[in-house]
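Lab meeting, item 3. Inverse folding demo.
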């Protein structure tokens, strides 16, 4: 038996006036997800435990069956593992975004948390310079993918108030700067980065090409090295994770899953969908389980871009779900697929919310319920009611859940 999770990050949403009162999932053309729901069981699941932050890190750990209350230490340590960073017990890792500021009534605002989706190559040059000029025995900068990077603080502090930049799109940044004990050091680093970035050749080239200049680094997601039991210890299965995002690759590394890098995977609308499918199917030739993640719907949600989110969902359906189902049918006798987002990312809020997500389970031993389409309505219409997201792996592996 082969097991697959197809995760469209942040796909679920709220009704949008621009879409005639439909959600992006309802407005998008999704024949493959609809067929999967029609031929399988549907319902809802809570992927964010009560009291936990509504991040993809918490949701992904939960979906894989791990108790985040016991194991979660912060987002950046997971990403650090993907970058090959060996954290020492006293190291604090922080996510380091390259961001673009705007201005409103003379106050700087968070215009773009993604740095205009800066290329990985451009970003690497910026991070290299920041490390050369601001790095020390205490602080080191490490390059990641696109706007997502890492700062390691040797013998660093925790307990500060740090705000994800995607939570404050369009807002004045002043009240969201790092706060608490040790935060002044981080604010000084952020301010120092601004002078370096203003004069950097990569930024000047971006300006000349009509692209937004990177204004600053933004630090958040602090944490120390976690201790996560291996997936094989948990379930007796081998597996792999396919994602453009360091977070999910790092989680794979800590869980003893193979973190597969797909050439051309960007985390945006231009990602290599076909490559992700090909690598996923090939991985299943030798492994039991694949977690295939697509970031674009969430990115569009954070930007408040209605049409981009609809396109991201349609691309996920046409270029991931359809080809994966076709490949699974052609290559394997028995398999099960779990389809879901990790959390809602409402366009009107431009950030995540803690609400149940629509789920659909399809494959061997799964009896269909009466649902005909895959969207937010399956949360009420479907037969599955998963109160604790850690049950999702058991649902996938056994094809049933306790009533």
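The presenter then showed the designed sequence:
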């Amino acid at each position: 038996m082969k097991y697959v999770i197809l995760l469209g990050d942040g796909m679920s949403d709220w009704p949008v006036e621009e879409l005639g009162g439909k959600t992006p999932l309802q407005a998008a053309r999704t024949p493959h997800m609809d067929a999967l729901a029609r031929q399988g069981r549907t319902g809802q699941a809570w992927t964010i435990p009560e009291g936990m932050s509504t991040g993809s890190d918490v949701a992904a750990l939960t979906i894989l069956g791990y108790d985040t209350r016991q194991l979660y230490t912060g987002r950046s340590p997971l990403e650090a593992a993907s970058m090959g960073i060996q954290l020492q017990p006293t190291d604090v890792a922080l996510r380091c975004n390259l961001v673009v500021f705007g201005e409103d009534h003379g106050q700087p605002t968070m215009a773009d948390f993604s740095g205009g989706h800066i290329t990985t190559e451009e970003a690497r040059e910026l991070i290299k310079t920041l490390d050369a000029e601001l790095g020390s025995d205490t602080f080191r900068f490490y390059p990641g993918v696109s706007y997502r990077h890492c700062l390691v603080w040797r013998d660093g502090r925790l307990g500060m108030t740090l705000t994800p930049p995607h939570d404050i799109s369009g807002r004045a940044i002043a009240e969201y700067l790092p706060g608490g004990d040790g935060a002044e050091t981080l604010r000084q680093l952020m301010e120092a980065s601004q002078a370096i970035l203003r004069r950097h050749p990569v930024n000047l080239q971006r300006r000349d090409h009509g692209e937004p200049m990177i204004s600053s680094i933004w630090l958040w997601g602090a944490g120390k090295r976690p201790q996560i039991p291996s997936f094989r210890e948990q379930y007796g299965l081998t597996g792999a994770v396919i994602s453009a995002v360091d977070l999910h690759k790092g989680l794979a590394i800590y869980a003893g899953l193979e973190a597969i890098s797909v050439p051309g995977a960007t985390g945006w609308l231009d990602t290599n969908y076909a490559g992700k499918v090909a690598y996923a199917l090939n991985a299943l030739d030798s492994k039991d389980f694949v977690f295939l993640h697509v970031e674009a719907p969430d990115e569009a949600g954070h930007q408040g871009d209605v049409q981009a989110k609809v396109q991201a969902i349609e691309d996920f359906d046409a270029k991931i779900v359809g080809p994966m189902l076709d490949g699974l049918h052609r290559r394997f006798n028995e398999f099960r697929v779990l389809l879901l987002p990790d959390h809602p990312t409402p366009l009107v809020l431009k950030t995540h919310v803690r609400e149940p997500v629509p789920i659909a389970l399809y494959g061997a031993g799964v009896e269909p319920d009466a649902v005909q389409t895959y969207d937010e309505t399956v949360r009420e219409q479907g037969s599955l009611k998963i109160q604790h997201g850690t049950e999702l792996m058991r649902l996938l592996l056994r094809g049933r859940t306790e009533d």
